[in-house]
Amino acid sequence: MGVPVLIYSLLFSVFVLILLTCLCFLLLGPSKYAGPAAGSPGAVVSVDVLVLGDIGRSPRMTYHALSIAKHGGKVNLIGYLESPPHPGLINNTNITITPLPTPPQRPQSIPFILFAPFKVLYQIYHLFSLLAYSLPPAQWILVQNPPSIPTLAVASLVCHLRNSKLMIDWHNYGWTILAGTRGPRHPLVYLSKFYECYFGRLGHFHLTVTKAMARQLRAPPYKITNPMIDVHDRPAAIFQPIFSKSEREQVLNRVLPASQRQLVPQIMEGTMRLLVSSTSWTPDEDFSILLDALIKYAAAATGEIVVPVLAIITGKGPQKEMYLRKIADLTAAGRLPNVRIDTAFLPFPDYAKLLACADLGICLHMSSSGVDLPMKVVDMFGAGLPVAAYSGYESFGELVKEGENGHGFETAGELAGIIARLLSARGAAELVALRRGAVREGGLRWDEMWDATVGTALGLTTEKRT
Ligand SMILES: *[C@@H]1O[C@H](CO)[C@@H](O)[C@H](O)[C@H]1NC(C)=O
Ligand SMILES: *[C@@H]1O[C@H](CO)[C@@H](O)[C@H](O)[C@H]1NC(C)=O
């Protein structure tokens, strides 16, 4: 028996199991939402906000929940409780956090293809019993996509059964992410693409993170016809620029790795420049671009004096150790003169402050769908930090305005050129202008935009979008 046959027969049996489980539940019949119609004025708006991920690491769904609560809506926030959630969610009279049980972890000895169906069944069971039975019927279910399996299917079924409306918040596409990890021709990629297109169309209202994504969702293969608005991510209030010199100095002395703190006076004088990049250290954020750029930068001693650079890289991830060894080797071999690279893993508030103290932010995010945007650039702008960001995808220009708040690059050579220009004396005026642009962009915050878009759609606010 070939592997594809095995996969298809497994998928089929999973499908039958899912069907049977759902049927059993359906026979019991969940109660229906019978309050005022969604969107009608005066109704108390109730929303189940659902993310099949860690609530503490789902900022956008957290902001949706906080905004709904702020306008008097009642929220059930459903997701995994792994890291500490946003403090605004705790003791909020209008928000109930309903944790999902963490699904069993795959033992090393069981292959993904055998284990995944069981995990999905486990999730379907818990999601369905929670959404259809444990919780009272809500006016809306607001679900994050991706992950889309099984949330989209379960949420649309529950909406149908309970007379709720389904709002889908498209952050990205599940199938493009899967194609990135499993290869574009994997049968699961086709299956999840079909699934996402099919269930995506069942949403009554759609939010997207970019205009480009909204355009794509209108077109085949998605062909969504229901109302849709783009709701760009905005920085959290914790990301603020620092304008005072003394505050910058204090912060640097506190948040820089201890071994680099003797550089603070030089950073303050501008004789050493501070770069910050946060990376997930995974293949889809190719750290080698930044490393190669810094090598080129260090080597470009001809013609101009290279300003020494301290690059702080934050984040955790699988390739970190490999790159740290590489950096140590390169430094030992004298390939990185005038460049120091160090890593840090900072508490969130300290990370926000570090961004505000840096000279330039670097973003290596490569979009799997081509139409999402990196949250870390949003945060950098919130902290008033101009960026050099990988630009090889369609929606890039919706966030980074070339020459206004940052610059895009596609190769290490281009990045090295940007770093060399902006950090040298000849780029000083340009960097100041970019910083102004970043502060301006970061000044656009979530609340006003949310009120005018999602708030109106939910019937919580009456403002018209400007
Ligand atoms: C909760 O909703 C009420 C209105 O029902 C509102 O007055 C209050 O400010 C909300 N509380 C929070 C913490 O958002
Ligand atoms: C929430 O309330 C409990 C007691 O009601 C209190 O101990 C706790 O500090 C509060 N937490 C926050 C974040 O306000």
UniProtKB/TrEMBL annotation:
<dbReference type="GO" id="GO:0005789">
    <property type="term" value="C:endoplasmic reticulum membrane"/>
</dbReference>
<comment type="function">
    <text>Participates in the formation of the lipid-linked precursor oligosaccharide for N-glycosylation. Involved in assembling the dolichol-pyrophosphate-GlcNAc(2)-Man(5) intermediate on the cytoplasmic surface of the ER.</text>
</comment>
<dbReference type="Pfam" id="PF13692">
    <property type="entry name" value="Glyco_trans_1_4"/>
</dbReference>
<protein>
    <recommendedName>
        <fullName>Chitobiosyldiphosphodolichol beta-mannosyltransferase</fullName>
        <ecNumber>2.4.1.142</ecNumber>
    </recommendedName>
</protein>
<keyword id="KW-0812">Transmembrane</keyword>
<keyword id="KW-0472">Membrane</keyword>
<feature type="transmembrane region" description="Helical">
    <location>
        <begin position="6"/>
        <end position="28"/>
    </location>
</feature>
<dbReference type="InterPro" id="IPR026051">
    <property type="entry name" value="ALG1-like"/>
</dbReference>
<keyword id="KW-1133">Transmembrane helix</keyword>
<keyword id="KW-0808">Transferase</keyword>
<keyword id="KW-0256">Endoplasmic reticulum</keyword>
<keyword id="KW-0328">Glycosyltransferase</keyword>
<dbReference type="GO" id="GO:0004578">
    <property type="term" value="F:chitobiosyldiphosphodolichol beta-mannosyltransferase activity"/>
</dbReference>
<comment type="pathway">
    <text>Protein modification; protein glycosylation.</text>
</comment>
